[in-house]
Write a structure and sequence with these properties.
Layout (H helix, E strand, L loop, with lengths): L9 H5 L1 H7 L17 H13 L9 E2 L6 E2 L7 H16 L2
Antiparallel strand pairs: 1-2
Amino acid sequence: DFPVDGEMQADTAVVEDILNTTYEFSELEDPANVLVFPNLEAGNIGYKLLQRLGGAEAIGPMLVGMDKPVHVIQRGDEVKDIVNLAGVAVVDAQQE
């Protein structure tokens, strides 16, 4: 089991001080390490900002909700990004 919480502002989800002071009823004890976006465009914006400006190690994007998982290689991905995404694809294939 792992904690899951609902909609919240991005800074609330990832900044521990904000999470603990303004969202004390949250199920999260620590800042979020997975973010879910409402659509592809919003997800891509958030993903690129975290990766390029925040220095986050991003693996994805992954599209879910279809018959099979979809893993998208982005323009400008480095070899390590492709290897990470391939690893996720292997795990997905093994679970089929």
